[in-house]
């Protein structure tokens, strides 16, 4: 089966400034110690990790590059694509609530390979601490003014946020119906208790009610545990049930998810979990949907 990896990263920290990989002390990270990521990760490394899988394209997602130079990462990726043939397309960096958002989005939209933007809105630490219209959140009027500039520049939006912000995300999707909103990492279901999963499922269902919302199944590692089908099958199946096979994309999140499993383990796990789906449905989730949503030439 051919695969388009809908979410992966490259970086050269010897040549470029990525604060979270270069600065000390390290930031708080959902998988815990991430020191193993503090090395260059380039297409040859990725191809080695992908091993036997026939990855025919990929979507590069911004890597928290130097925020003082958001277009610098796009120039670097343009050169990487010319030399290496990967990635196929890019989701670039822009701070939607910054004064330079209009200029930065125009620069990204003017390329032939940037398909969208990721800017992580400021999250609350728990569901009970969510504040409507908080600065830096999806309800922040300044942030939303930047979001309104995505569609005019031909850009979609990749959203990485805890599931308790998905009601805000639904409002965003409804208010900007001409912008595709793509939820990253399955909505971050870190709490696998029954109560945690119930909250996650309800939030996912709210977002899925917007026809312009999509989901990437990835980022399912649990801190301190190896990645297993037993741990993740329920989450994967419920996400597919909620969004439907035409709005789901599988992704490796490599090299980040290499902290919890090999590429082989994760993709083989997704393969096993979806074994009961039709060939057409599996092709959609592993390849065709990413082609359509991120406009990748097949």
Give your account of this protein's structure:
- This is Amidohydrolase-related domain-containing protein.
- InterPro entries: Amidohydro-rel, Metal_Hydrolase, Metallo-dep_Lactonases.
- With 298 residues, this protein is an alpha/beta fold.
- The chain has one domain: TIM Barrel (Alpha-Beta Barrel).
- The protein has helices at residues 19-22, 43-50, 70-84, 101-109, 141-147, 166-175, 194-208, 229-243, 263-273, 279-293; strands at 2-8, 54-61, 89-93, 114-118, 156-159, 181-183, 213-217, 248-250.
- It has an eight-stranded parallel sheet.
- Helix 8 crosses helix 9.
- The longest helix is centred in the first third of the chain and has 15 residues, at 70-84.
As a percent range, the share of strand residues is 5-15%
What is the radius of gyration computed over CA atoms, rounded to a whole number of angstroms? Answer: 18 Å
The CATH architecture? Alpha-Beta Barrel
SSE succession: EHHEHEHEHEHEHEHEHH
What is the CATH superfamily? Metal-dependent hydrolases
Q: Tell me, what's the shape?
A: globular
- Mean pLDDT across the residues is 97
Number of beta-strand segments = 8
Please give the CATH class.
Alpha Beta
Query: Helix amount, in percent?
Result: 25-40%
Structural class: alpha/beta
Largest sheet: 8 strands, parallel
Poorly predicted ranges (pLDDT <50, ≥5 residues)?
none
Strand order of the largest sheet: 1-2-3-4-5-6-7-8
Q: Kindly identify the CATH topology.
A: TIM Barrel
User: What is the number of domains?
Assistant: 1
Termini separation comes to: 14 Å
Number of helices: 10
Domain Amidohydrolase-related: 4-296
Protein name: Amidohydrolase-related domain-containing protein
Region (Disordered): 116-137
Organism: Devosia nitrariae
